[in-house]
């Protein structure tokens, strides 16, 4: 489209107005008979004067009063260090390098939850929240930023959006303003967590002894441990394990210290022996291809070392080419956990950073290199593996087959290659586009997919449910709406990464490179509990209804709602039993084909939300503990039937919380009952 400015005219609008009958939007001309805001039909004739014709902004402009400026800047976790420090200073009226106060001063900071605590931005007169915060303590942290330093007047305004979470607290302001906060807690009853700490201490001692013996050893700077590169483990393993064995008495004393006043009980020598036996897995983990080069990072991601809440699967989107290794991450790099990155940073999607829009066009990875120019990762696709994806039951088979191993589906079952990317890249264009209220989001990850290895899981029956529990992986997969992404190397080598062919210009691509089609994914190693009806008929089948009929669809939707509601009821009861936050547990449903039958049976699953799992759901899967959990679910549902509850479908007292926002329309405690 080409606009000829010489043919355009700027003029003041007349007195006539066309008001949209649907949304009330005012137009200064007939606009081809269509509302520019909601696309409704406009009347051919202008609206009669009066009645809503008052224009507040026009009246404000006509008044003879001094103009008030409103200089706004962004301050988030992605703001570059120098800009963040400068903006904090200017917002507080501190001007460095002889900056003039009038144009440089900042009146409003637009921030994210990063500013909730721990950042000094001075005295605030007002706080505006664009939505209702998740919990009461989030609300308190945010509104409490205003009026802290004796200001005679301060204002906190919260905009409640048209979604279930915001509307619930809009109607119950006391619940968000004065509800008691949950008490803090420590998980001292989980032996797997204690065992990982023991393994970390054993390797720390072993590599410390190795460094004393070999001055040339370089351990690196990884947050999980200074153990060097994974490729060197095979050569170093005999000496490190020998040092660890010599340190066994000290490790047993360390184990006794960890068990002191902890709810987990056991013999320190036995716990030490069990933990050190896990080191046998390190050899296979170190030999894996296309994974993180540091040994400690790999061991943490595969469950041998504690995570300590570290963001170990962080991936960067490089909005411009990095030219130095210090500071790291380099200017222009923004980060997300991989489970979020495969959605937000997927090729074709647009991301806003500091008022400018960047479009992701491919994959690239960089690692800092001793203060010099960063080194490019040779294969930014990272680890790749063939899998089977079922679009019917949302199962993932780590070993692909001809049909889905869970539900037996063949027509909606696909074999694809999953890639766990090392990083993402934008267009690196010299001309940047300013953000103007619209973005492209072309693809996102699907619902989490759980893989189940029944051979590694125990099995028992309780209360009409067949229960299994054990280790699992939860995958977040972005397959670009079933089409996958096609990558080809860019001209110029590894530094330019792999480009997605539908979002990159043709002259950027290396025409001699073979295109590769993959789906982007992230994986979370954790524990899972799975429960299904022991008798298929109890699962509420609709198999006698004609396929595709309205009644079949209705029953199918109701059945999903019922089992989804039951899954969240189990999660609520489990959180109470374990004395943890509901956010520590994930839940959902999946459908499996019953053995010897053509019917699909719903299953609920509970999983530890933290990476590598804390052993919560493995504990709940034990026969005695699950029976107690089932009794708690029954008692919980019984309490919801009381008149005091007063809830027709679901609320924040029973099934709803911030984390299950997308499921709110489905949740119904009566269906769970």
Please give a handful of descriptors for the protein shown.
673 residues, single chain, alpha+beta, 26% helix, 17 helices
In short:
With 673 residues, the protein is α+β, with helices and mostly antiparallel strands. 26% of the residues lie in helices and 21% in strands. It has a 17-stranded mixed β-sheet that branches. Strands 1-2 form a two-stranded antiparallel sheet.
Structure description:
This protein is of the alpha+beta class and 673 residues long. Helix content is 26%, strand content 21%. The strands form five sheets. It has a 17-stranded mixed β-sheet that branches. Strands 1-2 form a two-stranded antiparallel sheet. Strands 3-4 form a two-stranded parallel sheet.
Secondary-structure blueprint of this entry?
Elements: E1 18-19, E2 26-27, H1 56-62, E3 72-75, H2 81-91, H3 101-104, E4 108-111, E5 126-129, H4 136-143, E6 155-158, H5 164-171, H6 173-177, H7 191-213, H8 233-246, H9 248-259, H10 268-277, H11 282-286, H12 295-301, E7 314-318, E8 333-337, H13 338-344, E9 350-353, E10 356-363, E11 366-369, E12 372-376, E13 383-390, E14 396-397, E15 413-420, E16 424-426, E17 433-434, E18 449-451, E19 458-462, E20 465-478, E21 485-489, E22 498-500, E23 516-533, H14 550-578, E24 585-593, E25 600-608, H15 616-620, H16 623-640, H17 669-672
Helix pairs in contact: 7-8, 7-9, 7-10, 9-10, 14-16
């Amino acid at each position: 489209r080409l606009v000829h400015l010489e043919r355009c005219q700027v003029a003041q609008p007349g007195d006539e107005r066309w008001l949209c009958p649907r949304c009330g939007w005012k137009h200064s001309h007939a606009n081809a008979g269509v509302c520019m805001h909601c696309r409704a039909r406009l009347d051919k004739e202008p609206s009669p004067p009066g009645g809503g014709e008052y224009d507040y902004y026009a009246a404000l402009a006509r008044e003879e009063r001094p103009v008030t400026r409103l200089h706004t800047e962004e301050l988030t976790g992605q703001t570059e260090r120098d800009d963040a420090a400068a903006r904090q200073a200017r917002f507080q009226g501190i001007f460095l390098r002889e900056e003039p106060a009038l144009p440089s001063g900042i009146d409003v900071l637009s921030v994210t939850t990063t500013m909730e605590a721990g950042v000094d931005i001075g005295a605030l007169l007002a706080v505006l929240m664009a939505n209702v915060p998740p919990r009461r303590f989030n609300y308190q942290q945010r509104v409490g930023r205003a009026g802290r330093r004796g200001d005679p007047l301060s204002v906190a305004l919260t905009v409640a959006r048209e979604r279930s979470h915001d509307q619930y607290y809009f109607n119950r302001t006391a619940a968000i303003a004065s509800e008691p906060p949950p008490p803090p807690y420590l998980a001292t009853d989980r032996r797997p967590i204690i065992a990982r700490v023991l393994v970390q201490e054993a390797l720390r001692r072993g590599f410390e002894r190795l460094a004393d013996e070999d001055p040339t050893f370089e351990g690196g700077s990884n947050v999980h441990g200074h153990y060097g590169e994974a490729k060197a483990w095979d050569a170093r393993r005999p000496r490190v394990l020998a040092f660890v064995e010599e340190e066994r008495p000290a490790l047993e004393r360390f184990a006794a210290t960890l068990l002191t006043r902890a709810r987990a009980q056991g013999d320190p020598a036995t716990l030490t022996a069990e933990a050190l036996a896990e080191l046998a897995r390190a050899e296979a983990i170190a030999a894996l291809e296309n994974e993180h080069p540091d040994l400690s990072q790999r061991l943490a991601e595969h469950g041998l070392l504690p995570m300590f809440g570290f963001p170990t699967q962080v991936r960067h989107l490089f909005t411009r080419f990095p030219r130095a290794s210090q500071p790291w991450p380099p200017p222009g790099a923004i980060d997300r956990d991989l489970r979020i990155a495969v959605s937000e940073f997927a090729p074709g999607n647009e991301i806003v950073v500091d008022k400018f829009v960047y479009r992701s066009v491919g994959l690239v990875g960089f690692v800092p290199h001793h203060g010099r120019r960063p080194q490019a990762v040779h294969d930014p696709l990272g680890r790749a593996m063939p899998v089977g994806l079922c679009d019917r039951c949302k199962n993932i088979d780590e070993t692909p087959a001809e049909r889905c191993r869970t539900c037996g589906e063949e027509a909606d079952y696909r074999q694809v290659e999953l890639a766990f990317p090392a990083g993402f890249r934008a267009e690196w264009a010299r001309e940047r586009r300013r953000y103007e209220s619209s973005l492209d989001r072309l693809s996102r990850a699907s619902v989490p997919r759980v893989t189940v290895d029944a051979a590694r899981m125990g099995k028992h029956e309780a209360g009409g449910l067949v229960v299994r529990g054990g280790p699992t992986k939860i995958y977040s997969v972005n397959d670009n709406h079933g089409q996958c992404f096609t990558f080809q190397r860019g001209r110029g080598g590894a530094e330019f990464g792999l480009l997605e062919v539908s979002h990159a210009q043709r002259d950027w691509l290396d025409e001699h490179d073979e295109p590769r089609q993959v789906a982007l994914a992230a994986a979370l190693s954790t524990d899972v509990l799975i429960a299904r009806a022991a008798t298929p008929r109890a699962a509420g089948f609709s198999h006698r209804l004609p396929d595709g009929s309205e009644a079949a669809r209705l029953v199918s939707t109701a059945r999903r709602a019922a089992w989804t509601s039951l899954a969240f009821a189990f999660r609520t009861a489990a959180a109470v039993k374990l004395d943890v936050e509901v956010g520590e547990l994930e839940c959902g449903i999946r459908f499996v084909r019953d053995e010897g039958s053509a019917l699909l049976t719903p299953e609920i699953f509970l999983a530890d939300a933290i990476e590598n799992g804390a052993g919560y759901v493995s504990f709940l899967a034990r026969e005695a503990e699950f029976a107690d959990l089932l009794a708690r679910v029954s008692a919980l549902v019984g309490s919801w039937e009381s008149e005091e509850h007063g809830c027709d479908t679901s609320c924040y007292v029973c099934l709803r919380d911030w984390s299950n926002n997308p499921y709110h329309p489905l949740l119904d405690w009566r269906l769970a009952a």
